[in-house]
Predict the 3D structure of the following.
Amino acid sequence: GEDVEQSLFLSVREGDSSVINCTYTDSSSTYLYWYKQEPGAGLQLLTYIFSNMDMKQDQRLTVLLNKKDKHLSLRIADTQTGDSAIYFCAETPYGGSQGNLIFGKGTKLSVKP
Amino acid sequence: GAVVSQHPSWVICKSGTSVKIECRSLDFQATTMFWYRQFPKQSLMLMATSNEGSKATYEQGVEKDKFLINHASLTLSTLTVTSAHPEDSSFYICSAPDRLAYEQYFGPGTRLTVT
C-alpha cells in the first residue's frame, strides 16, 4: 500500500537552512505536497511539485524531487523562529490533484534563536 | 485563493450525544470532499470521501453508521459523529479539491472533545 515516511524531528538554529526529507512508495503519484501545521491550527499549503519536475523554488522554499529514489525534500533557507511547526509531506496516489492525500507522520521543526 | 471553512472550530459534547461538523467550499464547487481525522501528535488519516449526490466512501475501519456523511450540495458536506464517545475526541479536518486548480484546500479543522 501507499506509505509516506518522514523523520519526526529536526532542530536548527535561526538563520541556518533546514532540510526536511520524505520518502514515498507510490510511483504513480502525480502531485507531492508540503504542508505546515502550527500548534492547534489547520494545514497550510506551502508548496507542491508535479512528478515531472525535479526542483521547484518559491522564495525561501526549495523542493527537490528524486523520482527514481522516490525522495522528496523541502529546504527552508534562513530559517526563522516563526518557521517552527510540523511539516507534512503528502502524495496523491489517486486521481492526481483531485484525489485524497496520503500524509507522512510529520516532521517537527524546532528553531532555536 | 479558494477557501474552505469548517464550523464549528471547536466543540465539547457529552458522551452519547451527536455532533455535526460542516465543511463548506466558499468560492468554488466541490463534487468531492475528504474528511480526515488527526489524533494528537499524529498524522492525518483519511476517514471517508464525500461525494455530492451519492453515498460517501469510507476507509477501512471507519464505521459508516457512526460517522454519517451528507454531501447535500456542491459547496457543503457535513460529518455527524453519532453517539460520541471520549475516544472520538480528535481534530477533524476536511479538504476539497478545486477542479480548476492543481491543489486541494483544507479547512481549518474542528476540535472535538467528548467528555
In short: Chain B has a mean pLDDT of 92. The first strand of chain B starts at residue 4 and ends at 7. Chain B touches chain A through 22 residues (CB under 8 Å).
